[in-house]
Amino acid sequence: MRNIPDLAALQLLVDVATHGSIGAAGRANGITQQSASERLRAVEALTGLTLLRRAAGGSTLTESGVLVVGWAARLIDLAQEIDESIATLREGRTHQLSIVASMTVAEYLLPLWLVRLRQQHDTVVSLIATNSEHVRTAVADGSADIGFVEDGADPGDLASLVVARDELGLYSAPHDPWAKQDSPLAPDEIVTRPLTWREAGSGSRRVVDDALARLGLTATAPAAELTTTSGIRSAVSAGSPPAFMSRRSVRSDVEAGRLVE
């Protein structure tokens, strides 16, 4: 494409056809008549064609000039379309946010946060709820812009910031034998009973496993494994063995007497 002038020079040639003179075309492009004339002569030299008939009363296109202006106008229109499309794409990307969050955060914290975000910014948010391990993977491989997890595991090469704090408690149904105990449960009592757990890889399970490991303990095999906090709440309140859950997530159940800590 050695014979194609740059877009600015082609626009200048099109403007000569529109305005009828090199001086007027130069003013339309913010340059002097002398600069416009020099640029147009450079176009003719590059193409090897005489594109303009110059006269005291103005300039007109030669037959070759008419053809080149027609092609140039199409090229300029296409370039403008590409420029606008790129701007639209950039703007759209700026206003989109891909979030991946652990289940408890997605269910009990993010809804309010997203409402507040929407009130302040015109942002389209996509949210995927999964366990903490998958959250880190999604952010690391670029499939999500930001991730929220509920454990304190080392984020590795990812930048991290604490945005909220919560506590885990051990909860059971009101009729469960542990709910009727007057004295606190000892850790070795907890690990010997099959409990209801989140799946491996979840933040809440990692927190409990790490706490038990610091005591030299390991929990016995689960009675059940569920993938959502709401599922565990329902199962435990219906009589499934106790489970460790976020205090935020079960506040209403405790107040209503469906669960006991």
How would you describe the overall organization of this protein?
The protein has 261 residues and is of the alpha/beta class. Helix content is 50%, strand content 15%. The chain has eleven helices and nine strands. A three-stranded parallel sheet has the order 4-3-5, sandwiched between helices. It has a two-stranded antiparallel ribbon with strand order 1-2. It has a two-stranded antiparallel sheet with strand order 6-9. Helix 9 links the parallel strand 7 (196-198) and strand 8 (224-226). It is rod-shaped.
Give the termini distance in whole angstroms: 76 Å
How much helical structure, as a percent, in the residues?
Answer: 40-55%
CATH architecture of the largest domain: 3-Layer(aba) Sandwich
> Radius of gyration over alpha carbons?
35 Å
Would you state the CATH class of the largest domain? Answer: Alpha Beta
Quaternary: single chain
Shape: rod-shaped
Superfamily (CATH H level) name of the largest domain: Periplasmic binding protein-like II
Unreliable residue stretches: none
Strand proportion, as a percent range, falls in 5-15%
Biggest sheet, in brief? 3 strands, parallel
CATH-derived topology of the largest domain: D-Maltodextrin-Binding Protein, domain 2
Number of strands: 9
Overall pLDDT confidence: 86
User: Helix/strand/pairing class, anyone?
Assistant: alpha/beta
Q: What is the structure about, briefly put?
A:
With 261 residues, this protein is an alpha/beta fold. The protein is built from 11 helices and 9 strands.
